[in-house]
Amino acid sequence: MDRVSVFIVGLCLAGMVSGEDEIIPAVIGEDVTLPCEAKERFPFKLVEWNRPNGGNTEFILVFKEKKISKSDTPDRYMGRVEFKDLQKGNASLVLKNVTAEDEGRYECYVEKASNRSKRSIEPISTIYLDVPPPLPDVRPPPGNIGLIVALAFFALVVAVFAAFVVKKKQRSSPPPPDKEAEKPLQIQPTAADPSIP
Prior knowledge:
alpha+beta, Immunoglobulin-like, 6-stranded mixed β-sheet
């Protein structure tokens, strides 16, 4: 079982994620969309995204009275949240530049404009945003090690190339003349030769 699966199972056992939650993975620094399709409740009277936090609920983004209200939006979400496409019945929440603190449970409530009854207390979408910690940085240690390795490799390539060129030249050129063969032949007279005076 991988690390994320163990983490999710642990959360379920701890009661932070219910079996009804949809788990959406996210990466720190990227954007993520928390789904909330509500076309059957369009046109909307109210769309509310919140984070239940024990007895305290944070209102992330609210659409009511035909306009988006950010008066209750916590500062850490300002400029990072928007609705996907309310005009087409899509109440999904786009969360930009995800941080580790964004991890947790989110709920989407939607009320149809023609609904005259008291607001339903059940969310139509419950999401658990899973933001695992970033993987460790695997860059080489600082310094000139990379440069030294690159220069050593380059020197090795040059040396092999030079040896190849020298070897090839030796094979294609005629052998050097023998030094013994270049000396003129000298005949030494011997005492037994009567022709020598």
